[in-house]
Amino acid sequence: MENLLEVNNLHVSFDTYGGEVKAVRGVDFSVKKGETLAIVGESGSGKSVTTKALMGLIPQPPGRIKEGEILFEGKDLAKMKDKELANIRGKDIAMIFQDPMTSLNPTMKVGNQIMEGLIKHQKKSKSEAKERALELLKLVGIPNPEERIKQYPHQFSGGMRQRVVIAIALACNPKLLLADEPTTALDVTIQAQILEVMKDIQKEMDSGIVFITHDLGVVANVADRVAVMYAGKIVEIGKVDDIFYNPKHPYTWGLLGSMPSLESTEDELYAIPGSPPDLLNPPKGDAFAPRSDHAMKIDFEQEPPMFKVTEDHYAATWLLHEHAPHTEPPKSVQARMKGMASGSSEGDRK
Amino acid sequence: MSTEKLLEIKNLKQHFKSGRKGVIKAVDGLNFDIYKGETFGLVGESGCGKSTTGRTIIRLYDATEGEVHFNGEDVHNVKNKEELKRFNREMQMIFQDPYASLNPRMKVEDIIAEGIDVHGLASNDQERKEIVVNLLETVGLNEDHANRYPHEFSGGQRQRLGIARALAVDPSFIIADEPISALDVSIQAQVVNLLKKLQDEKGLTYLFIAHDLSMVKYISDRIGVMYFGKMVELTDADELYKNPIHPYTKSLLSAIPLPDPNYERTRRRFNYDPADHDQSEEPEFREVRPGHWVLCTTKEMEQYQKDYPVT
Question: Structure pTM?
């Protein structure tokens, strides 16, 4: 199938008084129709900046897209003028933001906020737009929409507000949905509902989703493919099963190991020592090397290329080089990989 | 873990006035004990009253009703200043937001030493500095950090400062209110490991408040589940995850996504509807299985005991 979105060698930098902060340092990925790509990583790994760049939402200055192309249905968004971009934004590509408390306009009725995009992009009349807004509210599971459409955001709870944000994003049947931590601010039960709504809608509209999160549980739930970001780069990318059951990069091991499973009884969690690097002066070689137990001499000198594991699984670590010593993931991660691959954790809990 | 009670909470209530007539029952009749040396996990969704419970126990709020006994003494009726000070030394708190809970205008040394100064634990500046450096090293920082300001630290480091501050007065009981929620995954594990290590070394008792259930399960010995100001289920951490009895606990557990794609593909979610309960009488907190307490009516209790027989 053809790629809906293709990002090639994307570099985003911010010019600050201290110098150039290289937030995204050469990122490649693609998203197909009906597919969900999850981008995981810690704060400061560049995952949000990447999605913002896709939408042309990087404030310029201080930010700028230094290099690379963002091909959406073959057209390069990075080179588009603001006006052209405005016609795509909210129509073909929509975004769901992290914080439902601040991404809605508090002085505007919820209905009008949903109708805004419809009137602008689809040239609908007010009454048509209102009808569609009601439909959308029903779709995302807001009870009695006729009443709700006339209310202001403060009259909604957090979960309901996020549904409104999703309704706005879906208003014009976007082909691509960018969701930046859409459930992080919500309780688990509400999170589960929102994820279900998003999946149902994806099935119905066959849209591609880029889902940003740091919660690996959510990733396992929604993703078809996963990209792991660290220090402005994708360090591992593959199908969801590849990443969880056959991870190759030490950073991915660290992420998986630092989350306790519900069955785990180990005395100590596997914690990644130290903290992420300063992107003002990104380290030479493998950016993760200073925090890695498996770092080799070459990691501090030369940046690892993307090694191919399988047709759609790649990882940037020298450990995959043919001359590298054979290295096993830490025990806690291995146990999880084994336990999970055999599916033993199913059925344990009712 | 001993069976000696460090903290007994009896019929604790915290009601807030809302508007002229309204009352919000944030905490509505809690009864539970915390044993010496254990970690008691308190979970529930936002607004269920778990943070209010922690804050009321440490007397950041005055309780509307109920008693908190610490080592056998009723600490909420202490009026005497000296005794109150003694109690404050025993009980400390680690807050959720490491950005908001440290005074940005104070140096790290003074932040950590505030408790030391209040309680007069250091006889001179030399000693004060020594204690602070010691504490910094305990939480994995070093002497150089003492002269810096909070903004110079990352989130994980700030949370370590919060922990050092709590430890400064040598408490026996620490309330940790969502101490890791604001941190990155890799940093969360560091802080949790630190809390566990300190518990082993100093014999601390924790009340660990959180909504991240997998982390709570990992760190806690026993867990209480709260729903709308009430405790609906209380038992050992393992038992709670293996045999959740109250339908709310079930719905909560079934909603957690786990980092396991195979499991996620088959996970079924329960919905909790309070209307499904037996309405014939007021539910009470009953021991359905040994050490496993559930808020239920007599009829429900019979049903639960049939469904979860003791083997």
Answer: 0.83
Complex ipTM tops 0.85? no
Contact call for B255 and A189, based on CB within 8 A: yes
Quick check: is A98 in a domain?
no
Residues of chain A positioned with their CB less than 8 A from the CB of B192 = 269
User: Are the Cβ atoms of A271 and B214 closer than 8 angstroms?
Assistant: no
Which homologous superfamily is B5-243 in? P-loop containing nucleotide triphosphate hydrolases (3.40.50.300)
Euclidean distance between CA atoms B35 and A156, whole angstroms: 41
Chain B partners within 8 Å of A256 (Cβ): 259
Q: Does B201 touch chain A (CB under 8 A)?
A: no
In angstroms, the CA A87 to CA A173 distance is 14
Q: Which residues of B touch A218 (CB under 8 A)?
A: 257
Condensed to tens digits (0 to 9), the pLDDT of residues A299-340 reads: 888 888 888 888 899 988 888 887 777 877 777 777 766 655
Q: pLDDT tens digit string along A55-103?
A: 888 888 888 888 899 999 888 888 888 888 888 888 889 988 877 778 8
A312 lies in which domain range?
Answer: 1-92+175-190+206-349
Give, for B157, the enclosing helix (H) or strand (E): helix B155-167
Domain assignment present for A33: yes
Pick from A148, A173, A198: which residue ends a domain? A173
